[in-house]
Inverse folding.
């Protein structure tokens, strides 16, 4: 099997036949088409079943509940058998020779990823007027085979990102060997998948040719009118990019810096939108403390008073841990200790990188080296209570020591 085409399907009865027709009519026939019905409520599943009767290459997976495109694509990846993986959205379509030409390029040059251009198609004049500002074609010319990191640098110089997972052909081993999947439960998941895939790829090439037709309608806009979900998603992406870079020991290049800057600009814009609309941010649910930490640290620069209240709301979360470690011994740390005492959280300890030669106490607790608490890494939370300029250094130290649960607190009055 040469190519596995993965198509998440949800309520696209009107467009699905066009999408499937574009795949079953490919000049390359050594393919499998994996369609994941995400609990559609229209006739999408019936359309899939009719096509499956006519084409043996079509395989249908069904979700028991609607879980979103990330879960569907991940199921498709797990079920795929092709040497290459191609993602296709169920309201879009591809050129007749797309898979043949892309795989020929990949095989000839032993590529991990082949990038290409797409072209917008609009349902009507209203959609074209509202959505035509989205970029679908790259303006730069990219010649030859390079590393993914080198291509990212080149994209950044031209501001030439096309952030859709459907804009590339992937070698399946690249995904499998790096356990690369789509982050679930968020919008804009392609933003994260794009940078992870391109930085993991050793050999890539970008073709300045249109193989993909990207359908836009007023009904298919992602996260329309929901600033809080968009904000939450972008915060997770921002957080996960840094986790990914640290995990894979990737040195930050200009391309990575510019990409992160782009993501941060989206976060700051959405923060202002949410804060100005007085959305109740404390109702957000966080999957990890790292995400909560990034969210609150960013929020502090926009709304310190609301940030302080959120920290107080986290008292219930702190009670879940056997040990609370306050990292710092200055003014901020003393305020944190006072807060803990006020809330009857007496299981706290004070840590610094290098204790003074003489004994030092805060709130009746001796200040000790952070390394003293290594055995508590899995059942403790570290409250980093220092000014912002020292936070990065301390976070690096915590990570190197194996601590994963922490907050940064720099504004408690």
């Amino acid at each position: 099997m040469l190519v596995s085409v993965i198509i998440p399907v949800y309520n696209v009865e009107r467009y699905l036949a066009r999408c499937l027709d574009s795949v079953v009519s490919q000049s390359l026939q050594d393919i499998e088409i994996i369609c994941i019905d995400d609990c559609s409520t229209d006739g999408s599943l019936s359309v899939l079943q009719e096509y499956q009767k006519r084409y043996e290459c079509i395989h249908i997976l069904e979700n028991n509940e609607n879980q979103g495109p990330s879960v569907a694509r991940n199921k498709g990846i797990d079920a795929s058998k092709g040497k290459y993986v191609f993602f296709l959205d169920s309201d879009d379509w591809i050129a007749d020779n797309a898979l043949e030409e892309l795989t020929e390029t990949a095989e000839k040059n032993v590529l991990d990823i082949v990038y290409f251009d797409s072209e917008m198609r609009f349902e009507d004049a209203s959609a074209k007027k509202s959505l035509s500002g989205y970029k679908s074609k790259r303006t730069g010319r990219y010649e030859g085979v390079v590393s993914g990191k080198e291509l990212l640098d080149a994209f950044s110089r031209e501001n030439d990102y096309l952030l859709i997972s459907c804009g590339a052909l992937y070698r399946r081993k690249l995904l499998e060997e790096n356990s690369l999947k789509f982050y679930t439960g968020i919008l804009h998941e392609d933003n994260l998948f794009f940078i992870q895939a391109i930085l993991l790829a050793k050999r890539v090439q970008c073709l300045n040719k249109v193989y993909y037709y990207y359908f836009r309608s007023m009904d298919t806009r992602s996260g329309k009118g929901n600033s809080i979900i968009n904000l939450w998603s972008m915060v997770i992406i921002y957080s996960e990019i840094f986790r990914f870079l640290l995990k894979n020991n990737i040195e930050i290049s200009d391309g990575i810096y510019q990409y992160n800057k782009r993501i941060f600009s989206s976060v700051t814009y959405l923060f202002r939108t949410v804060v100005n609309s007085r959305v109740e941010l404390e109702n957000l649910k966080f999957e990890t403390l790292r995400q909560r930490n990034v969210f609150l640290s960013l929020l502090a620069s926009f709304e310190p008073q609301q940030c302080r209240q959120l920290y107080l709301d986290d008292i219930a979360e702190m009670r879940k841990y056997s040990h609370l470690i306050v990292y710092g011994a200055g003014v901020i740390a003393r305020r944190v200790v006072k807060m803990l005492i006020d809330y009857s959280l007496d299981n706290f300890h004070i840590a610094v990188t290098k204790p003074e030669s003489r004994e030092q106490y805060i709130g009746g607790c001796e200040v000790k080296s952070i390394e003293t608490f290594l055995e508590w890494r899995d059942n403790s939370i570290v409250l980093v209570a220092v000014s912002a300029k020292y936070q990065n250094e301390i976070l690096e130290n915590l990570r190197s020591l194996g601590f994963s649960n922490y907050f940064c607190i720099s504004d408690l009055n």
